[in-house]
Q: What sequence folds into this?
């Protein structure tokens, strides 16, 4: 009747997958977008500190990937079925689309996890760096120096390599060793600086 | 709780993939067999057997991982 016929079993399966997958995917996306806003409102109203740890958020993302896979299975299956009118092609194409979409979500997860940066400073990375004395280093006492460690300028406790040496504020220094969180430094003479630049 | 080490397979995605595959692989295999015109009984048996592929994959990956270590 007017070009509309009852859907086959496979068409019903594909349509159900596409419908439910889309609803679920959009719901998850909406919740993800609104998560921060609603979470903030929830925390303010109920005076709680609810936060999702990485495992839980990972599971939620997984559900999102699953929803995307179901959605793509339905859409691609339905599209292939209407285009080729061959059921097995539709099932195979739907499965392929589901795998590809799941892989895409996996890549997205990997990209998100790669964005995380370990901000822990390693004092050992300061060895060899040149800097300036921030707070004078008295003989056999500690002072403070400012050096760039891992791309960030930091003020750290330092002692002179030569214990009898007094290094005034503003002197240029080079870090030669680290003991605990204390840098061992030596004065950077003009000759040393030139040598380093030539290297 | 014993840790079988499978959590770290495929950059840590395997636990998720495993659950998804256990849910959908038999269904997909059944649909493929059924749409290919195979008898229902054979389709059902093959879809059930597809679960063993997941376990076999996990075990083989764990074995190769332990051998490499």
A:
């Amino acid at each position: 009747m007017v070009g509309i016929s009852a859907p086959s079993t496979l068409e019903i399966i594909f349509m159900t997958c596409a419908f439910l997958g889309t609803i679920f995917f959009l719901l998850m996306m909406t919740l993800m977008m609104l998560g921060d806003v609603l979470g903030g409102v929830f925390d303010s109203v109920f005076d709680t500190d609810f936060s999702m740890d990485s495992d839980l958020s990972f599971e939620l993302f997984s559900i999102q990937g699953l929803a995307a896979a179901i959605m793509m299975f339905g859409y691609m299956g339905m599209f292939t079925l209407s285009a080729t009118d061959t059921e097995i092609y539709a099932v195979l194409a739907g499965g392929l689309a589901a795998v590809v979409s799941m892989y895409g979500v996996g890549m997205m997860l990997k990209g998100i996890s790669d964005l995380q940066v370990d901000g822990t400073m390693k004092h050992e990375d300061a060895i060899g760096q040149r800097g300036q004395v921030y707070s004078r280093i008295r003989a056999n006492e500690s002072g403070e120096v400012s050096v760039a460690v891992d791309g960030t300028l930091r003020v750290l406790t330092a002692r002179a390599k030569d214990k009898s040496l007094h290094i005034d504020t503003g002197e240029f220094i080079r870090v030669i060793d680290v003991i605990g969180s204390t840098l061992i430094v030596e004065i950077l003479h003009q000759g040393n600086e030139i040598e380093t630049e030539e290297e | 709780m014993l840790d079988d080490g499978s959590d770290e397979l495929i950059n840590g995605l395997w636990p998720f993939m495993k659950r998804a595959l256990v849910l959908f692989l038999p269904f997909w295999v059944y649909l493929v067999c059924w749409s290919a015109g195979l008898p229902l009984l054979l389709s059902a048996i093959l879809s059930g057997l597809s679960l063993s592929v997941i376990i076999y994959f996990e075990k083989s990956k764990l074995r190769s991982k332990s051998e490499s270590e």
The helical segments of chain A are 9-46, 54-84, 87-115, 190-198. The longest strand of chain A covers residues 152-160. Strands of chain A lie at 130-135, 143-149, 152-160, 172-179, 182-187. Chain A has four helices and five strands.
